[in-house]
Amino acid sequence: MLTVHAAPLVLPAGAAVVERGAVAVDGDRITALGPYDEVAAAYPSARVRQWPGVIAPGLRQPHAEWLLTRCYHPDPREADALGTEPLSGGAFARLAGELDATRWAGSVRRGLQQMLRHGTTHLTGPFRDPAVRTAVSRSGLVEVPPAAGVPDSEVRDLDPLAGGRDLPGSVHTPLGTGVRADFAVFDVPDETALVAVGAASCVVTVLAGRLVYRRR
Description:
Blueprint: E1 3-10, E2 18-26, E3 29-35, H1 36-42, E4 47-50, E5 54-57, E6 59-61, H2 64-69, H3 79-82, H4 89-96, H5 101-117, E7 120-124, H6 130-139, E8 142-144, E9 183-186, H7 191-197, E10 202-207, E11 210-214
Parallel strand pairs: 1-4, 1-5, 6-7, 7-8
Antiparallel strand pairs: 1-2, 2-3, 5-9, 9-10, 10-11
Helix pairs in contact: 5-6
């Protein structure tokens, strides 16, 4: 279905920002990007989704392998005993011996869901754990090699913007006509606020044109 996603600001991360902008999506591709009035006029029959904040390219998670294989993501039913935050280091080591295949697969799936909640669309691989490879493949998230020439932070966090990363250095592909429709919406006023607040401000994640996460 042809859909126009509109927001007060579009941040292509490779071109000038577009105030009161819009991104038109047909199938899994972006077919237009520009001022809302122009995009809406070009696609008068499209469904329109109005979002708050900014539309930006989906983020690349540089520490996906570590977050999925060296962390345990608790089930909400385990919150009383384990809390709600990912367990790593000594806490993960103490728990690792108790993880059967079913529980481990559940942790991986929940980790991927958390990444989607942070506007992530691309994961830096490779993934050697079979359960992780399977879950990543089924999720629709895109596995990519490490970004060449982009300095990385030692901060391993579900937020790809943590550790002082900027937006251009945290995306795999800028928004543009003809590219795959992988993007996110963040409830912030501009790029400066996005970098300051972080990806926890994500309200929508779109993968290959599909709405895969929407904050309730």
